[in-house]
Design brief:
The complex is a heterodimer of chains A (71) and B (315). Helices cover 83% and strands 0% of the residues of chain A. Chain A has 71 residues and is mainly α. Chain A has one domain: F1FO ATP Synthase, CATH 1.20.20.10. The radius of gyration of chain A is 17 Å and the shape is elongated. The two termini of chain A are 13 Å apart. Chain B is mainly alpha-helical and 315 residues long. The longest helix of chain B has 46 residues, at 207-252. The radius of gyration of chain B is 25 Å and the shape is globular. Helices cover 61% and strands 2% of the residues of chain B. Chain B has a two-stranded antiparallel ribbon. Classes of the chains: A mainly alpha (71), B mainly alpha (315). The interface between A and B is medium-sized, with 21 and 28 residues.
């Protein structure tokens, strides 16, 4: 039963995937519109992607808890 | 030797090293020692259970359970000491003999500190200057702890394990950060800091506005306690999940493809160290600013716009 729960918890990585995809599309459009600001946009995009990634990691941690905590 | 032949030679040497290492140290499944079937046995041999594992006193087993109190030295604690001593000794050695015209080693230390400082100042403006030392300390310590997990051998040998892959260490760091910015909030605003969460002054504008403001204050109070939880879990999940992913990928594809994941892990560890320290700085700056309704002060626009390009590299 724990493995089922862990598998369901891993579905939570869907959210940040969509979020980072939207971020990638909008930052690419912004660079295309204004190529002089490419450096600033690149730096900002990396940091914002790490924020979104952190939430996906929370879902994975729940899955790990479901498997490894036996009580 | 032409360039193409040189590249092929390097790839051949890497594959030869991987295959020889695989033959010399074959993965053994701790659960099923009789036979070794391809996917399951390799993955079980390469997987590491979540830390901590007690190593001193030797032979000591931690009592089972989710939250236990166990006095022993674990592998992550020992590695944390080693990393801290290493960072302190390295920085002390690099900054010996200060000259007014820096050269060589002193130049390196000054470059590191100035990069970190300019990044912090570009985020917060001149108000952030008192908090830059803590920002730099968090960043350097977490960076070297994360990268120590990628050194070959760390994680497989009983005495060494990446410190931040242990949920106790990351919870400790997040608690230090939490106590720090709460203390800064109380020091700068006095008891008016609690006025952010329980805005009883809004009842002056009418009962409806007062109730809405109370609700908003309650949500902000809840978010205040979520901050250390997300800080610790984000760092733990990234580092421990990276270890697990690297182990499984090496178990399934022995050579060459794990190198790509290894490079990704190097970049992700750097970004996670940056995120932890940046969020601490941001929370501190948010805690010391006055409540947004005091609108008789005129705000000038901040001097420099957010310019992470200087750090992330606009080459």
């Amino acid at each position: 039963m724990e493995h089922l729960g862990a598998g369901l918890a891993a579905l939570g990585v869907l959210g940040p995937g969509i979020g980072i995809g939207i971020l990638a599309g909008m930052s690419s459009a912004a660079i295309g519109r204004n190529p002089d600001a490419a450096g600033q946009i690149r730096g900002l995009a990396i940091i914002l992607a790490a924020f979104a990634e952190g939430l996906g990691v929370l879902a994975i941690v729940v899955g790990l808890l479901a498997i490894f905590i036996k009580a | 030797m032409s360039r193409r032949n040189r590249i092929l030679l390097v790839i051949g040497v890497l594959i030869a090293i991987d295959v020889l290492a695989f033959l010399a140290f074959p993965p053994t499944d701790p659960k099923n020692t009789t036979e070794c079937v391809y996917p399951v046995c390799f993955i079980n041999g390469n997987l590491e259970l979540p830390a901590p594992h007690a190593i001193f006193p030797p032979g000591h087993e931690s009592p089972p359970g989710l939250i236990v109190f166990d006095v022993s030295i674990s592998s992550t604690l020992f590695t944390m000491w080693v990393v801290a001593v290493l960072v302190i000794v390295l920085l002390w050695f690099l900054s010996r003999g200060k000259k007014s015209i820096p050269d060589g080693r002193q130049n390196l230390v000054e470059w590191v500190y100035e990069t970190v400082e300019s990044f912090g100042m570009s985020l917060g403006g001149p108000k952030a200057r008192p908090y830059i030392p803590l920002f730099a300390a968090f960043f350097l310590f977490i960076l070297f702890s994360n990268w120590s997990g990628l050194v070959p051998g760390v994680g497989k040998v009983p005495w060494f394990r990446a410190p931040t892959s242990d949920v106790n260490v990351t919870i400790g760091l997040a608690l230090v950060s939490f106590v720090f910015f709460q203390y800064q909030g109380f020091k700068h605003l006095g008891l008016g800091y609690l006025g952010k969460f329980f805005p009883f002054g809004e009842f002056r504008n009418g009962i409806g506005a007062g109730i809405i403001a109370l609700f908003v204050g309650l949500v902000e109070l809840l978010l205040e306690f979520v901050k250390p939880v997300t800080l610790s879990m984000r760092l733990f999940g990234n580092i421990y999940g990276g270890e697990v992913a690297l182990g499984v990928m090496t178990a399934l594809t022995i050579a060459l493809i794990p190198l790509g994941l290894f490079a990704l892990e190097v970049m992700l560890n750097l970004v996670q160290a940056l995120i932890f320290s940046t969020l601490t700085l941001m929370f501190t700056l948010a805690a010391i600013e006055h409540h947004g309704d005091d609108s008789d002060e005129s705000h000038e626009p901040t001097a420099t716009p957010m310019d992470p390009a200087e750090f992330a590299g606009a080459h």
